[in-house]
């Protein structure tokens, strides 16, 4: 990291990802987590994880687990322990009472029915339905012994300005913002207060999140100001849309990040593609996570919604599979087989996969395609053949395979050693090698589309090659 970059921020960078555990980790949430992770890692900072589990009815341990496993699969490691927002509820209440003591908040004794009646009357009179509590400036001596909420005493005039690293300067008229509830009558904090208290206590310097939270930033700024706390750098990033430009939903395909592991996309490819979804560094499309950390700046994030493009995702993933270290790739393939409920590799298959990775990973866009190419490794004798393979093994072809096996017994088991033998066998029957390739593929892989005949023979070895040819010739 350059010296200029490491000193670009007065305080050490601290970012956070704060999902609600009410469902799976959405691909938009995964990208938000990635941006926070890249920014923190690139600046030698800290990336924290907070689970916003205050909605007790909808929060589930299963959703929390899905979020953690999704982040782990993506390779986004967080610093320190996972923070539970619910477990910090006493601290949130404490801050609400501090605001009360500072005169920045007040007790409101209005019932929900009274608030509804106020809104109905305002609507009938064509006035603003923004609730204005009669308790805002009430003398504490007049307070009844009744349940109350604590409301923020928001400024009535002027405007609240949010300086956003992505959206620019955004202004909110204060007469359009009500005195929001900070603490409910049951003593639990609202989301608006809890988020600010947690971010302050966790030392968060940069809040990078979806632009659907931009309005919240105005209200949350007021809490920071009421408490005399430093306001973080806001960065509200546009949402992700489907290929048709509409808000991303299940009709567009997989929306949960966990589904992408099950579909066979490599984590490095997924990180690369998600980083490019709404952020850019010149014309760079294919890059490593180390490069992304080095390059990632908030100024590179665009304001327009990004569009999910599955073709581009596959192309990027194909480049990452081709460039990956073979041993690491094999490990990730085994994790994919487990995640997608497929049978685990046997010891023999694992050895052959490692040996044949050079010919499997080239031009495979997903692990599903790679496993499909590895069918010749996965299959056990006798090799089951598809219809095209059966058609390729006619009487003439079987005869050629039969005449071939004795010659392979003594062949030098390299491509240079095998090539003249196969070419000669085809020529003896008035064929070019291309005509012999289909029956060879049928015999070795049980299908007519496979890696090159030579690659398959070299990977499975002499004895297995000859045994498969003899089975097919019989």
UniProtKB/TrEMBL annotation:
Top-level taxon of origin: Bacteria
Record's keyword terms, sorted: Aminoacyl-tRNA synthetase, ATP-binding, Cytoplasm, Ligase, Nucleotide-binding, Protein biosynthesis
Motif ('HIGH' region): 19-29
Residue ranges constituting the Aminoacyl-tRNA synthetase class I anticodon-binding domain according to the UniProt record: 352-472
SUPFAM superfamilies registered for this protein in UniProt: An anticodon-binding domain of class I aminoacyl-tRNA synthetases (SSF48163), Nucleotidylyl transferase (SSF52374)
Pfam family, one: Anticodon_2
Methyltransferase listed as a keyword: no
Family: Belongs to the class-I aminoacyl-tRNA synthetase family. Glutamate--tRNA ligase type 1 subfamily.
Function: Catalyzes the attachment of glutamate to tRNA(Glu) in a two-step reaction: glutamate is first activated by ATP to form Glu-AMP and then transferred to the acceptor end of tRNA(Glu).
Name the UniProt record assigns to this protein: Glutamate--tRNA ligase
UniProt organism field: Aliigemmobacter aestuarii
Gene this chain is encoded by: gltX
């Amino acid at each position: 990291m350059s010296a200029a970059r490491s000193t670009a921020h007065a305080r050490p960078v601290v970012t956070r990802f704060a999902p609600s555990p009410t469902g799976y980790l959405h691909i938009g949430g995964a990208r938000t987590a990635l941006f926070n992770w890249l920014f923190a890692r690139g600046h030698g900072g800290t990336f924290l994880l907070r689970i916003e589990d205050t909605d007790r009815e909808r929060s589930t341990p299963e959703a929390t687990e899905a979020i953690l496993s999704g982040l782990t699969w993506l390779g986004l490691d967080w610093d320190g322990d996972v923070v539970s927002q619910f477990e910090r509820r006493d601290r949130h209440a404490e801050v609400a009472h501090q605001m009360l003591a500072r005169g920045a908040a007040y007790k409101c004794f209005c019932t929900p029915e009274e608030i509804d009646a106020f809104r109905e009357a305002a609507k009938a009179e064509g006035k603003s339905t923004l609730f204005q509590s009669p308790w805002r400036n009430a003398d504490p001596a007049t307070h009844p012994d009744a349940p109350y909420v604590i409301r923020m005493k928001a400024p009535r005039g002027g405007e609240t300005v949010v300086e956003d690293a992505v959206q620019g300067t955004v202004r909110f008229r204060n007469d359009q913002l009500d005195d929001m509830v900070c603490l409910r009558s049951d003593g639990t904090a609202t989301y608006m207060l809890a988020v600010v208290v947690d971010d302050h206590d966790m030392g968060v310097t940069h809040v990078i999140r979806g632009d659907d939270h931009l309005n919240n930033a105005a209200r949350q700024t007021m809490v920071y100001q009421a408490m005399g706390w430093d306001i973080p750098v806001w960065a509200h990033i546009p949402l992700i849309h489907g290929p048709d430009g509409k808000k991303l939903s299940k009709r567009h395909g997989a929306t949960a990040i966990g589904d992408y592991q099950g579909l066979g996309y490599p984590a490095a490819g997924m990180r690369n593609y998600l980083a490019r979804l709404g952020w850019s560094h010149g014309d760079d499309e294919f890059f490593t996570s180390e490069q992304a950390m080095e390059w990632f700046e908030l100024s590179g994030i665009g304001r327009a919604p990004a569009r999910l493009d599955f073709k581009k995702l596959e192309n990027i993933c194909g480049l990452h599979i081709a460039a990956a270290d073979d041993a690491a790739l094999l490990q990730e393939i085994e994790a994919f087989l487990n995640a997608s409920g497929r049978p685990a590799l046997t010891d023999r298959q694992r050895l052959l996969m490692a040996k044949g990775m050079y010919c499997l990973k080239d031009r495979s866009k997903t692990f599903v395609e790679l496993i499909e190419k590895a069918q010749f490794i996965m299959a056990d004798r006798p090799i089951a053949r598809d219809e095209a393979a059966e058609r390729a093994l006619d009487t003439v072809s079987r005869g050629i395979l039969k005449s071939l096996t004795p010659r392979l017994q003594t062949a030098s088991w390299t491509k240079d050693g095998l090539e003249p033998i196969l070419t000669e066998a085809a020529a003896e029957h008035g064929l070019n090698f291309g005509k012999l390739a289909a029956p060879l593929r049928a015999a070795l892989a049980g299908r007519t589309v496979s890696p090159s005949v030579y690659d398959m023979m070299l990977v499975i070895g002499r004895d297995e090659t000859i045994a498969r040819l003899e089975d097919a010739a019989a």
